[in-house]
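Need tokens for this chain, all 353 residues.
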Amino acid sequence: MIPIAKPVIDDEEIEEVTRVLRSGMLTQGPAVKEFEESLAKYHGYRHCVAVSSGTAALHVALLSLDIHSGDEVIVPDFTFIATANAPRFINAKPVFVDVNPKTFNIDANAIKKAITPKTKAVIPVSLYGQAYDIDALREIADKHSLAVVSDNCQAIGASFNGSRNFKDDFLTFSFYPTKNLTTAEGGALLTDDGGLAEEARLWRNIGQKSKYEYVHLGYNLRLSSVHAAIGLAQLRKLDRMTEQRRNNAKMLDELLADYVEIPFVDPRCKHVYHQYTIKTKKRDALQKHLTEKGVGSGVYYPMPLHSLPTFNAQANCPETEKLCTEVLSLPVHPSVTESDIQTIADAIKSFPR
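Here are the structure tokens for all 353 residues:
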């Protein structure tokens, strides 16, 4: 079976972890600082705060921006649940809006319609590895004085108009094992605002500014030095892994364009292909067929977030509802070989249309 995802772990990661273990500095040691500085530089931000997960990064971002009970935070209906859970952690209300069916990312016009006097922030997602429309979001945010927390958990290395800096209040990452860069578990926040960075550090570390000096409530959401060591090794080869994903996507585009709806790429964006997601009206049947042919696949995501009982929410998101019945992600990760690409293409071509 060609897996839908596979972490790339080599001797470099093992050597970095061994170095940290032997140092005895296992948490918040030099490796964490080095990883933070390297990641901030890579994405063109002044500050990076490493945390324990992408979910934690979103949570800390909203806390640092002083979003609180009763505030509204606009989120896309078509994304992973953590995006919408983050406002609920602080008793704010996630407001679900529709997405652009071509890019899969949040629809700027839908955001405009959802803004109320209670709206304090928006969390646009760069879904599957392609940046959202940063120009449109920045214009809306500036006009309505909204904070922007970019959920870039699937899009490390992605750029918009040649820049990896998204002109936001925070850019957040997840380093889960299936992500383009992994630390086994982990996340991070990037920002150009020194004050926000300091707040984020307080919230991730029990509100502690210095030993036994507690500024306010905080959590234990730190990234360990062991996890940071993995991230350092991964970051050094991220560009190579990204190009492998992009090359695999290009081959799939060429082989599948006449058979399914291949991913649309905004010409302003560099897509990093966390997922290679096609659309087909026979999604479930095709997925079953691929499994029989030894090709893994995934459905991200099978239902609109607003429809989940845990949210008890109302939303009018017809594009999301349609996408949830049509999207199917195919293997595109760096371990996929040219032979695997041909196997994937042959399996799809053999499916009755």
